[in-house]
């Protein structure tokens, strides 16, 4: 019999009868046993619709994000597209989002048949009647070593973002697990950052869905409208861009009409990234990544190198390194698909340092002799193969492509997006720019970058892919998004945009703050403080006083002080000044959005008191320049510059 789904008052055959329930056996595969091998780009199995909880994903993702950003504090105060998306989610997204698991036919790098898996998410709130036309987004998740932690099994950190993109944006969002992942029955490892294999895996799912007609969507009242977008972050950004390149240069894919793409935070300049990473000596937060790359490429290029020759022999030995240690087994076992990166990293660190929390460099993972011959030598065959799989230079996209990257990304360097942008610019293509994934001059972090960029990409798609990055401002997005949403969603976005404006209120301070105090009982008359000299790269210097009550809805008090920052003015030009009265505290925020800030403050007080103070800040690290020179008895405590709650202020004037 044909299973029917009652959804929004509409009774419809589930997937138009493609899925037959045969007792407890569940959904039937579309390709019967003994049948000819299905052609690449065709569906092999479609599971029945299930509804999954956004709240459960949200809790898991938030915990991982917290771990990744614990040193960055609240760096995400003001980010317009994120605010809009978040408010849409909070106010409108159903807790249970409908989706179907999929398996489809493809090929690996050697042309051998493979069966890959993924999941398709659909928005839940659409009227009955004729099928609703929706655009299709192919969203590739980032690096994952745990084979089953993928969309097909309703797992994976980014799976939540795909579900939310479908629900809040009105998209059909298909998320492939990737080759060697999910329900792929092959024992072959994932082809990590291998251009041809990963692009094919993504595009064969797009082709399978695009050529399925209305069969996939009709069962829950949808039909594809012909628009196709590609989206990815981190390794997913690399794979999405590799697919864009294939669609732009290979006529074999001309049946897929790409509309636009968002390729963000990815290792696009692959050889340079690997060389930079493996030649550095500083601790690397994800040492499992170079180990993962080295474990997968020998299968792609037989004879290129042996994994056992490339890594430190200590990692291959059976553990643990000490009784009861966490590093039981060896690197081969840790990378066999049963552990996530967060589980592999402490094992590597314990094996190499004796401490599961002991930092190690990416270089430390390697066999040093192998590294000198194959990494340090830029002309080595290994480096040439990596360069062959790079995506920078030699081609141009035929559709708008959104780039976004954390300028301070410690995992995948910003130069990957910068080099891609520059290469396209030299070839005559006009990229939109690179959206910096930061707030208040602080980088989002690699995991946090996904939280910022993926919602932004969905909003950008929904807004019609504005041709300028200024089109990502909340007020511009608001008008474009509202025009395409039903009244219920539009009202939520309207409220969200208003909230975003409040969050950009001038009274909202960015930390660190420094406190300047004119002592009570000082001589009559104020001190005048002026900007004598300054240099900054997109930096800001803002002044605040402390108010008893909030200055805008939702304002949080200054930690340790209990009051609320109230904006006085921003110092922009030499000679800009303000007055400080006896018994008054002033709070100064000196922070660069990018680069550095260097300024000289001049102080003039009653009775001829005067002084000068140099302040420097580079990438959020505050440095005091030359010693302050004062004619009076002013006290300077550089150590309290970033701590307004400290008992002693940074600068006390007599």
Walk me through what this model shows:
- With 654 residues, the protein is an alpha+beta fold.
- The protein has three domains: 4-269 and 392-500, Rossmann fold (3-Layer(aba) Sandwich); 270-388, no CATH class; 513-653, no CATH class.
- It has 18 helices and 26 strands.
- Strands 3, 4, 5, 6, 7, 8, 9, 10, 11 and 12 form a ten-stranded mixed sheet that branches. A six-stranded mixed sheet has the order 18-17-20-15-26-25, with no helix packed on it.
- Helix 4 packs across helix 6 (235-249) and helix 7 packs across helix 14 (381-388).
- The longest helix has 17 residues, at 446-462.
- The chain starts with a strand and ends with a strand.
- The relative contact order is 0.10.
- The model is unreliable at 1-33, 64-95, 470-486 and 492-503 (pLDDT under 50).
Number of DSSP-assigned strands: 26
**What is the total number of structural domains?**
3
Helix count equals: 18
Radius of gyration equals 28 Å
CATH hierarchy: architecture of the largest domain: 3-Layer(aba) Sandwich
Portion of residues within helices? 25-40%
Biggest β-sheet strands, sense, barrel? 10 strands, mixed
Structural class: alpha+beta
Question: What is the name of the CATH superfamily of the largest domain?
Answer: Alpha/Beta hydrolase fold, catalytic domain
Shape from CA axes?
globular
N-to-C terminal Cα separation, in Å? 89 Å
Q: Tell me the fraction of residues in β-strands, as a range.
A: 15-25%
CATH class bucket of the largest domain: Alpha Beta
**Low-confidence parts lasting 5 or more residues at pLDDT below 50?**
1-33, 64-95, 470-486, 492-503
Mean pLDDT: 76
Say what the CATH topology of the largest domain is: Rossmann fold
């Amino acid at each position: 019999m044909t299973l029917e789904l009652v959804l929004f008052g509409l009774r419809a055959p589930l997937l138009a009868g493609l899925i037959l329930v045969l007792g407890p056996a569940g959904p039937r595969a579309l390709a019967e046993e003994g049948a000819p091998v299905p052609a690449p780009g065709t569906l092999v199995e479609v599971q029945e619709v299930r509804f999954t909880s956004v709240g459960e994903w949200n809790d898991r993702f938030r915990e991982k994000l917290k771990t990744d950003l614990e040193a960055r504090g609240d760096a995400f105060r003001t980010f317009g597209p994120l605010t809009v998306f978040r408010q849409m989610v909070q106010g409108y997204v159903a807790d249970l989002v409908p989706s179907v698991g999929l398996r489809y036919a493809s090929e690996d790098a050697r042309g051998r048949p493979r069966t890959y898996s993924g999941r398709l998410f659909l928005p839940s709130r659409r009227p009955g009647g004729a099928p609703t036309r929706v655009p299709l987004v192919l969203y590739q998740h980032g690096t994952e070593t745990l084979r089953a932690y993928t969309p097909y099994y309703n797992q994976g950190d980014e799976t939540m973002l795909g579900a939310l993109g479908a629900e809040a944006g009105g998209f059909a969002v298909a998320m492939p697990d990737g080759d060697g992942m999910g329900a792929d029955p092959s024992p072959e490892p994932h082809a990590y950052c291998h251009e041809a294999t990963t692009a094919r895996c993504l595009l064969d799912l797009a082709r399978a869905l695009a050529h399925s007609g209305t069969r996939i969507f009709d069962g829950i009242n949808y039909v594809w409208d012909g628009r196709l977008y590609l989206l990815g972050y981190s390794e997913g950004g690399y794979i999405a861009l590799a697919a864009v390149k294939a669609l732009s240069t290979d006529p074999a894919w001309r049946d897929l009409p790409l509309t636009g793409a968002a390729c963000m935070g990815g290792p696009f300049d692959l050889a340079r990234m690997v060389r930079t990473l493996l030649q550095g000596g500083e601790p690397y937060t994800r040492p499992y990544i170079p180990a993962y790359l080295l474990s997968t490429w020998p299968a792609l290029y037989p004879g290129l190198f042996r994994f056992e020759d490339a890594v430190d022999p200590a990692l291959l030995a059976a553990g643990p390194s000490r009784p009861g240690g966490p590093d039981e087994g060896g690197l081969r076992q840790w990378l066999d698909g049963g552990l996530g990166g967060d589980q592999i990293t402490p094992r590597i660190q314990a094996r190499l340092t004796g401490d599961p929390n002991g930092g190690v460099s990416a270089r430390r993972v390697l066999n040093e002799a192998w590294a000198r011959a194959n990494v340090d030598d830029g002309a080595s065959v290994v480096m040439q193969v990596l360069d062959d799989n790079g995506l920078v230079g030699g081609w141009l996209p035929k559709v708008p492509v959104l780039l976004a990257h954390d300028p301070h990304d410690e995992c995948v360097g910003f130069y990957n997006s910068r080099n891609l942008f520059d290469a396209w610019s030299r070839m005559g293509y006009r990229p939109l720019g690179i959206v910096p994934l930061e707030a208040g001059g602080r980088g989002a972090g690699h995991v946090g970058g996904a939280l910022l960029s993926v919602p932004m990409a969905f909003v950008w798609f929904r807004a019609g892919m504005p041709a300028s990055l200024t089109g990502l401002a909340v007020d511009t997005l608001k008008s474009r998004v509202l025009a395409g949403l039903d009244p219920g969603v539009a009202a939520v976005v309207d409220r969200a945009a208003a909230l975003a404006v409040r969050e950009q209120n001038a009274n909202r301070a960015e930390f660190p703050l420094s406190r300047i105090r004119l002592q009570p009982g000082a001589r009559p008359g104020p001190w005048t403080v002026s900007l004598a000299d300054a240099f900054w790269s997109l930096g800001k210097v803002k002044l605040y006083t402390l108010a008893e009550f909030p200055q805008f809805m939702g304002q949080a008090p200054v930690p340790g002080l209990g009051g609320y920052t109230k904006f006085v003015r921003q110092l922009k030009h030499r000679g800009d000044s303000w007055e400080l009265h006896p018994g008054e505290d002033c709070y100064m925020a000196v922070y660069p959005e990018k680069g550095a800030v260097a300024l000289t403050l001049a102080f003039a007080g009653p009775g001829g008191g005067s002084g000068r103070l140099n302040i420097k800040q580079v990438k959020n690290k505050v440095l005091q320049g030359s010693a302050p020179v004062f004619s009076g008895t002013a006290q300077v405590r550089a150590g309290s510059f970033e701590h307004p709650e400290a008992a002693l202020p940074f600068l006390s004037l007599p």
